[in-house]
Every structure is written in structure tokens, then in C-alpha cells.
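Researcher: We're teaching a course module on how sequence relates to structure. For the next exercise, students receive a sequence and then see the predicted structure as C-alpha cells, so they can try to spot secondary structure elements on their own. Here is the exercise chain.
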Amino acid sequence: MNHTRVLSFLFAALSSRVAAQQPGPMGARDTLATVVVTATRVPVSTNAPTASTTVLTGDAIRAQGITRISDALRTVPGVQMVQSGPQGALTSLSVRGGNSNYVRVLVDGVAVNDAGGAFDFSSLSTDNIDRIEIVRGPASVLYGSDAVTGVIQIITRDGRGTAGFSMEAGGGARGAKRGSIGMQGGAAGASYSILAARQSTDGILPFNNKNVTDALSAAARFSNGITEARVAARWSASLYQYPTEFDGTVADRNAEQVDHRLVVSADLAHRLSTNLMVHLLLGSNEYLPRSNDGPDTPADTLGFYGYFSRSVRTRRSAEARLDYRLADRSTFTVGGEVARDRERTSSLSLSEYGNSPDAFEAARHNSALYAQLLGDVSSRLSYSVGARLDQNSAFGIFRTARVSTAWAVNGTTRLRASIGNAFKAPSFYENFATGYVTGNPALRPERSRSSEVGFERVGQDGTVALRGTLFTQQFTDVIQYNGTAPAPGAPNYYNVAAAKADGAEVSVEWKLSALSSVTASHTWTDTRTTQAGFDKSAGANYVVGERLIRRPSQSSTISAEQRWSDGSRFQVTAMRVGERADRDFAAYPSTAVSLPAYTRVDASIMLPFAGSDANGPHVILSGSNIFNAAYEEVLHFPAPGRLWYVGVRFGR
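Model: And here is the predicted structure for the students to work with:
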């Protein structure tokens, strides 16, 4: 049976179950008016939202058997994940064709990006999350550096509801094992959640390819109606063993990456009066990556045969904000933030030419003031106007602004438009590197200007929702490495490259009944280099007029979900990722290549035990890439093939 016939069979079976159901109330919810706190920092609901947002709920993610944030994000319009091979390998994210360090990633309000915007999603699990909020478009006005093409925030469960335990245990393909135990509960005045989890797999490569991820997450909330306090902490540890060299060759028997991360936040909100609220957010992110790659055997003493590195990267931040509710239903926000980033790294290279130790330490601080006016001119017209001033010890002053508006044409149709700018600070290495590479302390932040227009239409009965967005973005002052410094002792990094990314996002949600739905989306992105910088060869990362690497021009997702009154649930999702440009770095100079398009199909089934309620025990059966499609998201690094998992879970 070919793939098309299998898909046809699945959808036919789904349709037959839908037809057999008794009709019931739709229970339709106007998702266009959903409050997304990340987009505005203010929990204000409006009939005409001004930002492009998507919310993924933790319950829906867990019901699909998804355990990694990266896999949950793959279905979001405008988002492209790039995983360098097996589970546990370096995993980066691009939004609307921007670079992977153009997205601010938050965990309970705390930025977890490295200084300079980089973030590896490989070890970020879905354990104990309440929801993931995705905001597409520039957001530096509220979040400062890195929020160039979007913001992604992972929010931990508060645990409101009846107190209870949750547990899960299961296994799957390639030695996969998963287990978790937690508890949560609470009422209006106080609530809590805590969960510990571990997942592991033996990987897809013939040796040295184990991946283990541990997570411990907790949150607590207290409220008396005037003051609300929330504290959250997430600790994670991961081990990734990899046998691959830089060109994908499977040869190394003991290389490994070990990471530890601790994110802690404390959020206090106090109502000073009916219309005035003060907020204080304290955050800490500490990240400790380790690389170990010693000699494979006692005889391994030729060439460069060993490498070890240790790093401590920290960010401490404090933010105060006032929200004032005006008489006309508008909200004026003014806030200030101070943050300090620090990195300390040491390394040791072993070679037949002798040992080569190196050490690097740098720190910089940032202070910022911002203001935002968010409101409704009427019940049909809303707007958002914001501005921010950042003062950084490394690059000085930077100003950002954003203006957006939305209009509810009638009860079913909304239009919106926005324009703004954003920035990304240089990395510590680009600023301060010494030794073989010389950093440039005079680097400017990379800059962007963006605009978009969009529409949203929901049918009168709420069964069909259609959304569309057109966007355009220009990236300038992009930092580029020059292997040959222009003079002895001169820096190797300069602001010389530029690019653009234009495109469109379209999505539709069709509710067949109260228990079944189909969603589909398509993203078209045109990325082009407008200024190449130093390297003008055909294999350079930036070639004038050519596409940016690893970003598809076309991508689509279609998903069908069917639920039953006994709590059973079935979902199937097909993702089509178009052809992408890449580079073959196995030889010097690198050459331009094209990665072919691929289609990946995932499916999941949830079956409750007989007589159990919504929180009772149930079986989860999930499969990713169930038709075993062969593809690479990075040249020479094959993606995992078919994977399956069977587990038993109870509790929320």
C-alpha cells in the first residue's frame, strides 16, 4: 500500500467515525479574541488583535505524545526547525526566514538565549508546560535584543484545580524510554505544580549516539485579589553522544555534549488602585555546556585528536512595569529593565603539535526604558503604539518602535497592519574573541525593519476560521566573519552583509463537529541576500540574489483530529517542507547544494482505560515520520526515520 492510499484510508476511517456520531453543540470559541500575554505584556482581550500569534496548549501537545518543544513548533505557520541529525543534535529555529538568532526565547518570562541570540532547542522538553505562545514579527519594543522576527515563550503550569498526581511510563523505537511523576493542585488563592521527568534514546547511528534528557519543573502562585505572586523554576540536564565529524562522517567513538540549565523567575503584581497595576519580574538563567572528545584509543595521537571545553553563561535580569487603565479602555504601560550577561569559557585542544589551552571571559550589561499604549478606539478598532530605548555597555544606544492597528469590519472579519524595527546584539565571541580570531568591540547591532498586513475571518457559526498575512522584512548590518583580517591585529568581524525575507502565511481551521476538526496552513517565504560582504564566491553563506540557506520557500501542514465522548482521541499530521538551499562544507571552499523537498507524517492515538475519567489512566501510542521518509535538514546529517512510542499515563 503506497503512502497516498494509506493516508486516504486514515481519513476515510476518520470520516466514518465522525458520521456515526450524534450531532451536538459546536461549542465554538472565537480564537481571534484569545488573550496572548506575550504579544503585549498586558492581559487585555480585544475583538481586534494587532499581532500575529499562535498558542499551543500543553494538554494538546502531550495528547500527541510530543516530548520536545522543537517538534511542537514544527506545525506553526512561519516557523522552520533545523535539526542536525538524530534526537539530541543541535536544533535551531527560524521564523519568517530570519536567522536562527533572531528569535527571543523565554521560559516563564526569562530570556534563555545566549548573548547574541543563539538558542539550542535540542534539550528543551514539553514536561509540565501549560502553553507555548508564539508571536511572529518584530518585538524588540517589549523584549529588546534578539526579538527580530518573533518571540517564543514557554509557560509552566500553575496547577489550578483539584489536587492530584500524574505519572507516565513507556518505551519505543531505538531503545526509547520515558517516565515522569508529578503533582499539582490549588484554588483561586494558591496553586502549585511540580514534575520530574526523564527521556532517553539510543539514537539512529551505529555507535556512540545515546541521548538522555532530565527535567525538573515547578511553579507556585499566590493571590489575595490585590497582590499576586508567581515563582517558577525549571532545571534540565542532557547528555548527547555523537559519532559524527563536521562533514557527517561517522567515526568518533567518544565525543559527547553535556548541558545543564537552571531558569528561575519571580513575578509580583500588585494593584495600587482600580486602574493602576505595578509588576516586578526577577529572572535568572544559568547555562553550563560541556564538550568532551578525548582520544578514541591510546594510539590516537596524530593530527587533532582531542578537544575539551567548559563554559558558564549567565543572565540576571530585573524589570519593573506600571500598567494604567485609561477611561476609554486603553492601557498605558511604562517599564524599565536591567540585565547583565556573562560568559566564561575554557578549552583544551590536543594534537600532535602539542596541547593548546585557551580561555575567554566577558560580560556586558544592558538597561532599557520602554512605553506602550494599547487600546480600543471602539469595540471594533484597536491599536498598539510602543517605543524603547536600550543602553548597552558594548554597543551603546539603540532605539526601537512599533505601530500596529486592527479593525473588526463586522462580526466575522478583522483586518490588521503593523510596522516596526528590531535589533540583535553581537555575540560575546564576535565582540571580544582573542587568539586565532580577533573580536570587534566596535560592532553595531544587526538591524531590521518589518511590516505586515493580515486578515482573519470566522464564520457566523464558528465552524471555519481563515487567516492570512503578508509580510516584508529587511535585515541590515548583518555581522560577517572575515578569515583574512585587513591588517595585523585587526578584527575578523564586521557589519557588512544584508538580506531580505518576504512572504505570506495562510491557515484555515474547520470544525467538523464539537469533537472533530481539520487545520491546514501554508507558508511562502522568499529570502534573498542583498549585500554579500567579504565572501563573494558561489559557496558563501551570503550570495547576492540567492536564497538564505536552510530556509524553504514553501512549507505546508495539514492536521486532522477526532475525539470521542469516552476520552479517546486520534490525530494525524502531514508536513510538507519544500526544497532548501544549503552548503557542502565537507571541502574547502564550500559549494552550493540543494536539499530536496520531503513529506513527514506523524500520528497519535490516546485510549482511556474502561470506566476512567479525563484524569484516569490512558494509553498513548504515537509515531513520528511513520512512512520513514528519508531527508536531511542539514547536508550529510540524516534526520531520524520512523519512531514510535507506547506509554501509559494518568493525571493531568
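Model: If you want an answer key for the exercise: The chain is about 5% helix and 55% strand. The longest strand covers residues 304-325.
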